[in-house]
Structures are given as structure tokens and as C-alpha cells.
Amino acid sequence: MNKRVVDLADGARLATYRQGQGTKVLLVSGLGGTAAFWSDVVSQQLGSWDMISFDQRGIGQSTRGTAEVSIAQLADDCLAVLDAHAIDRCVMIGHSTGGVITQDLAARHPDRFEALVLSGSWLSPHFYLQALFQQRMHLLATDPESYQAFGVMMGYAPDWLCAHWPVYEKAMTQTPRTDEARAIVAERIKALLSFDGREAASSLTMPVLVLGAQDDAIVPLPLQQDLCDALPQGRLNILESGGHFFPITRVQDTVSLLTAFIGQQDG
Fold it and tell me: How far is CA 100 from the centre of its chain?
């Protein structure tokens, strides 16, 4: 693994990780913002893809910087990562908030992307998302432990989480207990809730795979269907189960779908 720190103009320093060989792929995680979200996918694709993942600003090994956090800023951070690694064109895979970031960046720089994968993502600030994340914001401010537990239990399929309970225990050790940690999460939630991709969706004319799970309780299936319907070349693949974090709980199935889609672009 090649670790590289990318310095941004506002003082943020992004920890990036490049592994594998083959098709160039940028992996962008969701609200949690960590490169580690993609670890299982990366481990299975080392011989097929040249993959870059990174900790987003203020997350993990990356520093916050001074820029205001918005979806556009997080998308610009992705562009800076690609430029630092001298990648002119790639496939971009974004999960959840990462899918929103992907939509924003691809709409402004379509020439940089051969194809997109929008995984467990959405198109616009649906009332379900608004209600869900407003409640999460309340918990974040008043009861961080409950905020963290709620997020984990909403994110994973119950049967999978019961069989992998150490995942819950580890996640609870990452509860945002300090004012600084809570502020970083809060600004990211505000950013995702402000995104509306309806106007730009028609400009995403490259092939786009919308990938989801039927039992996703954070981004329900109708939101993913709406996203796919708005895309000129959108195609929808839905797993029967897996919860919101299906790239972890259904990694082999997820990788199979990604490999088939990306292989079609290479061909």
C-alpha cells in the first residue's frame, strides 16, 4: 500500500492510500468518511483495480483545514486527490454521502470519469432523510453514545450485526465525545442535507450504476429508484439484503456487481 498525504490550500492534509493495479478507481466513503470503509472491497480487487481511498477532511488521519464543509468542497477534495496521484480519468465509486459527492464532482468535471457507481445514495433532500438526520443531529448534540449506537444499528442488517457483534463494540469506541468531534460530524450532516442533485442529474451522461439493498433503512429503496430514474444512463442493481452498509455485509456480492459493471466499461 502506498500512503501519501495530499496538502490542500486551506491547510487540510488528506491521508490517501493507493493499492492494486488495473482500472483506476476512486473510492469515496459516506458520513463516516474513512478509507477503512472500503477495506474488504480493496482486499478482493488488488489484482484488478488501481484503487485510491482516503480519509476525508477532519476524519481519521486527515486534518480538518479551514474551508467551510459543503458537498462541493468535499468533491473538490476528491479532485485534489486525483490530481495529486496524476489520475486524469477514472471510475468513481461513492457510498451514501460519497455518492452525493460523486454526483457533484461528476456534474462539474464529467471529462474526468469513465463511469460512476452510486452506492446506497440519493438524489435530493427527501423528507425521510430530513427527518432521520434531524433526529440524529439531536442525539449527536444531547447523547453521543445513543447517536453512535443508533447509527450502527440502523446501518447494518440485524442478522449480520448479531453474528458480528464485535463490529458494534468497536464502533462504540469511536463515539464522537468531544466538542470538536461532534462539530465535524454535525457539519457533514448539514452538508449532505443541503444537497439537491435534481438539476444536474441530466448532465451525468456517463454510465452510472445505482447500487443498493432492499432492507436499507437509511436510504430506502424508493430513493435509490428515484436517483436511477433521473440519470440518462442509470442502471439499478438491488441486493435482497445487506442493510445500508452492504459493501461490508455483502462484500462478495457487491464486488461481483462492481466488477461486472466496470468490466463493461473496460470492454
Answer: 8
